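Researcher: Let's do a round of design. I'm pasting the structure tokens now; please hold your answer until I've finished.
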């Protein structure tokens, strides 16, 4: 009677070299510590099986060789591809937002107020008056008896809204000049921010899209302009001035020109609702505030490495708070290192 044990189920030794593919004939003498009970006596086999045993071979793959050494690399590649897809989607959304912003707020007649090609003289006069009251310089000078130029008297709600948005825009300068991806924008950041002061998100939206371009070898750091140097080194001062203007704008809207016939808070709120529904400039400011909330949190989040180490957590939390987050970023900017 021929007795054969279950040598077929016994694995061959797994060597440290994971790429070994072991092929063993049943003629080979297995190591004693593994196959003591699996040795087949050649004397007990008939001649036919003796001939067959020469051709019986087994292919055994070391379990360690089954491990995929490229799993981490594949996961990293998949993650990079996923991030690249997200980047492209964000760019498409931003460019679409730019198109909507220009069409809806400047060209089409469907939004409240007049489009730019049919702007009324009343709107022009209001815009000139708001510009003269920039940062409340003239009204404050007039209030202390300095009357080089008389400040135009406009509704404090419209003045407050205008200066709030402009004060917030003013604080974006150091943020743009310290952005880690600013070199992907090939134009002048000085010009970009200058236009942003007057046309806000018309120019900021394209910048947010362009900074998402893939980094290239040509994206070398550019020389810092004089404006960029002043704004960056004076970032805490810019933050204090911009934050103060935004706070003053809020207070002015609610309590400014109390000697005029502008009513109390209730009447001013009613005026604001009517103003937003009838003036294209005021309506556009609401869009600007909404977009600034998004862009402030986004840009600060990408540049937390520029913040003093002990203040990173604070700034990271505050970046979602309008104006306050940007003020914190500028106050705690690490000026000891090259940005």
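Researcher: That's everything. Go ahead.
Model: Designed sequence:
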């Amino acid at each position: 009677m021929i007795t054969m044990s279950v040598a077929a189920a016994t694995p061959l030794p797994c060597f440290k070299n994971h790429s070994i593919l072991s092929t063993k004939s049943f003629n080979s003498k297995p190591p004693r510590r593994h196959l003591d009970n699996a040795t087949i006596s050649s004397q007990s086999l008939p001649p036919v099986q003796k001939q067959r045993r020469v051709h019986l071979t087994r292919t055994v793959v070391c379990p360690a060789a089954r491990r995929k050494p490229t799993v981490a690399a594949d996961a990293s590649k998949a993650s990079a591809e996923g991030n690249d897809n997200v980047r492209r989607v964000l760019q498409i959304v931003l460019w679409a937002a730019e198109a909507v912003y220009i069409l809806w707020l400047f060209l089409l007649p469907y939004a409240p107020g007049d489009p730019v090609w049919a702007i009324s003289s009343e709107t022009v006069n209001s815009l000139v008056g708001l510009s003269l009251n920039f940062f409340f310089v003239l009204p404050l000078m007039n209030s202390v008896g300095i009357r080089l130029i008389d400040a135009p008297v406009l509704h404090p709600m419209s003045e407050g809204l205008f200066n709030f948005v402009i004060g917030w825009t003013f604080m974006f300068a150091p943020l743009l000049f310290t952005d880690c991806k600013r070199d992907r924008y090939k134009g002048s950041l000085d010009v970009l921010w200058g236009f942003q002061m007057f046309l806000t998100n018309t120019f900021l939206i394209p910048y947010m899209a362009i900074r998402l371009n893939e980094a290239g070898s040509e994206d070398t750091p550019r020389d810092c302009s004089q404006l960029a140097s002043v704004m960056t080194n004076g970032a805490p001062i810019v933050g204090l001035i911009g934050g103060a203007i935004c706070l003053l704008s809020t207070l002015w809207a609610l309590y400014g020109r109390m000697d005029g016939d502008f009513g109390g808070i209730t009447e001013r709120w009613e005026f604001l609702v009517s103003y937003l529904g009838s003036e294209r400039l005021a309506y556009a400011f609401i869009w600007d505030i909404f977009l600034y909330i998004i862009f402030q949190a986004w840009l600060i989040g990408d540049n937390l490495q520029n913040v003093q180490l002990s203040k990173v957590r604070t700034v990271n939390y505050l970046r979602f708070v309008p104006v306050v987050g940007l003020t914190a970023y500028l106050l705690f900017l690490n000026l000891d290192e090259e940005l």
